[in-house]
Amino acid sequence: MNQAELFFPRPVHQVPIDTTPHEQPEDDAPFVFEDLESEPRVAYIARLLDYPAVDAIRVAEQRFRRELDKQLGGEVVPALRAFQNASESGETELTKEEIALAKRWAKAYESARTAGLRDLGDVDEAYFDVRPT
Fold it and tell me: 86 in a domain, yes or no?
């Protein structure tokens, strides 16, 4: 760019824009949110306990919860309850579905614990407490 172009710019050619209203197709009805069925969700709380650094706790809890939701989806609380039932009673008192769900909980918890405690250093005594709300 030279001085002439800098101080005396050329006029910009404007492109005409079509502003006439267009008709909506008949099959393109607006989206109605009231028609959606909401997913039944049971909330839960996950807390990192026995870890001294307060500033890192929230990030660790978010990573833990994200991984737990990824592993179990909407079955976090039922899996937790199945695991608790399995640890409090004998295997003969549980259904096959409860046993399978309890095993999924154990695997998902360990994966989420690893994700949550990543980059925290020495965490020998720290653990995540999960409770339904």
Answer: yes
Number of structural domains (the chain) is 1
Q: What is the pLDDT of residues 49-65, one digit of tens each?
A: 888 777 788 888 999 99
**Residue 14 lies inside a defined structural domain of this protein:** no
Q: Please, what is the angle between helix 96-117 and helix 54-72, to 10°?
A: 150
Assess if residue 11 is contained within a domain. no
Helix extents (H) in 8-95: 54-72, 76-88
Phi, psi of 123 (to 5 degrees): -130, 40
Give the CA distances from residue 113 to residues 63, 80, 97, 121, in Å, rounded to whole numbers and listed in that order. 9, 14, 24, 13
Q: Could you tell me which residues come within 8 angstroms of residue 94 by beta carbon, excluding any fewer than 6 positions away? A: 82, 85, 86, 102
Does residue 21 fall inside a structural domain? no
**Model pTM above 0.70:** no
- The owner of tokens 């002439």 is 4
Could you list the residue range(s) of the whole structural domain that residue 53 is in? Answer: 41-132
